Amino acid sequence: MSLKSYSQTLFLLLSLAFVTRVTYNYLTKKKKQEKCKKKEIQEVIMFSYGVEEVKKSKYSRCMITKSMDRLLYYLNQPRHTLDICMYVWTNMDITNAVLKLHYRGVKIRVILDADMAFSSGSSVRRLEKQRIPVRWMKSSNLMHHKFCLADMLSEDPSVLPFLMAGSLNWTNQALCGNFEDCLVTSQKELVEQYRREFERLWILFKPIVD
Length: 210
Fold this sequence. Notes:
Number of helices: 6
Number of strands: 10
Family: Belongs to the phospholipase D family. MitoPLD/Zucchini subfamily.
Distance between the termini: 93 Å
CATH topology of the largest domain: Endonuclease, Chain A
GO molecular function: RNA endonuclease activity producing 5'-phosphomonoesters, hydrolytic mechanism
Order of helices and strands: HEEEHEHEHEEEHEHE
Strand order of the largest sheet: 1-9-8-7-4-5-6-10
CATH architecture of the largest domain: 2-Layer Sandwich
Pfam family, one: PLDc_2
Keywords: Hydrolase, Lipid degradation, Lipid metabolism
Organism: Helicoverpa armigera (Cotton bollworm)
Mean pLDDT: 88
CATH superfamily of the largest domain: Endonuclease Chain A
Low-confidence stretches: none
CATH class of the largest domain: Alpha Beta
Shape: elongated
Structural class: alpha+beta
Largest sheet: 8 strands, mixed
Strand content: 15-25%
């Protein structure tokens, strides 16, 4: 083989190797992007007394309904932050789920109604014991919101912020004895409106005391 032919063959091989490498990098990057692509959340969880059968769930030691299982599924999703605005909160499974997030390093903030904060079975004591910040405001007007925001303050591009809101209080009666609804959505416009409301109340309300 002449020197010229050898040079041409070497050039072709190097060119092929370069093109192969560039193509591989492109396809790998595209695959990662597709894998990390955030799937929008649009779901409504309905709670109906006497309609649902109970089932085993990894989120509870007790048998729970499919609706409760879906609620706990979403409450286990936050990676960085969880902001909760709840009129009444007494359910043990939900409290345990939130505390697990706290132990994993998720930053949690809670706003409660002042009159209901220390009602029978309220979870506020367990939250305070773990130094989770809780706020309220003494007023004749009820803090009647029932919503929470997941990962609103996260800068992680792989995380999808979402909202949970509806008629549902976090109580056994609401979860197992009422007809209730809980909307779960990642729609930016809706999530942002709730975020603004939470931040407004967080400034307006004060750290909880007896």
